[in-house]
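REVIEWER CHECKLIST
Item 1: Sequence provided? yes
Item 2: Single chain? yes
Item 3: Sequence as submitted:
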Amino acid sequence: MSTAPRPGRRAGRRPRRILRRVFITVSVLALVIGIGGAAAYWKLNGNIGSSALDEKDHVVKDDTPKGATNILFIGSDSRKLKSKGYGNESGQRSDALMLVHFAKDNARVDAVQIPRDTLTTLPACDDTGSGAFRGGYNLMINSALAGGPACSVRAVEALSGVHIDHFVQLDFDGFASMVNALGGVDVCLNEPMVDRDAKLDLPAGKQKLDGKNALALARTRHAVGDGSDIGRLGHQQVVMSSIISRARDAGVLTRPDRLFKFLNALTSSITVDEEISSISALTGLAKRAKAVDDKNIRFITMPNGAAPTDRNRVVKTADADTIFAAIAKDRQVPVEGSEGKTPKTPVKVLNAAGADGLATRARNALIGSDFVVSGVAMAQKNATATRIFVDSTPEALATAKALNKKFGFKAEIVKQTSNVTGVWLIVGSDRVTAGFEPVEPNAVKATTRTASDSLCT
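Item 4: Structure as written out by the authors:
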């Protein structure tokens, strides 16, 4: 009997081979997610260190809007590091502080970088295992970590007025290991970066960095600006944006080996409060972050100025208070460029309340909020409710909506195509006592970038 293959036999083996490969792939995934997954889960869960964050550790009342969450991320060199050359290892201090706000419904993530050189009044902290912290006036905020991560929470709450729900403390070795587990991160440098103290020597242009160099870039002070803490925050934003982009890469998320290495590096290097000290809790936070579009993940450097007592240190400014107030109320942070420019259609203000000076008060408030006012006048008829008349242009309608949003008027918008040019604000008697205080603050200037920004921006 002939043993020659029958016509079509080779073709018949192809589906079997494909099925075999599919079976092997599914089996491997089942092993990782199933039996292997259980072992991996317990290993990762056991990696996580925790520390208490009790009600007594807070100095700000928990009035965060339902659904929003505030987390303090602490980058520290407080653990005994394997990596050498990253600075003095004695004592505990935070090398990076970032207040991260998850908006309700996962609409956005705002991450405010707080310069470690910020001088402020630090509250005292009880001994929770790291030693008591006396606190005091005109101290650097990074020194609060000497009393443990809960003490850093107290310090940032006192500075910002924002209640903090959780903390995540990450050491430097963990940062480098996470980057290596991701296969490196991409950055773009406008000029070469050299810092012998940080063991950094990078050329200009696009490049991929391993964990050691990514950490050195995030930490370098001598290779940027005037060598201050402020100068390096921009590079930290670039590195963090790149990590987010890389972590979301399908090639990472769908490869069990790489994903496990990343999670193992992460969980081995963090200390969190007890409420989120499990894989399931951290996964919940990760899912929230994944649900937010990159363009709505914004890094913001806390607005600051030179400290009066020490020009080498900084203090927060009024603009910082504006940003923190928005976070506390779960409102979009009013940073220039985040919402676009104020519409410029001229607004005519008419006093329909019969109260002297009401139109002038409205005009001053509008000008102070960057609206254009074409004039003021008395209305022909008095009215109780404030209304806004607009012509037929989209620009006029946009301006009317911006007025309502800015000042909380809730005014009816009426289209008048024949008699009205631009926008008419008809001020009713309901504003005599309500006034014209903006419900949304004016946009402030701050150094920002989003996770979607080009690395070479």
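Item 5: Key structural point noted by reviewer: DSSP finds 13 helices and 21 strands in the chain.
Item 6: Recommendation: ____
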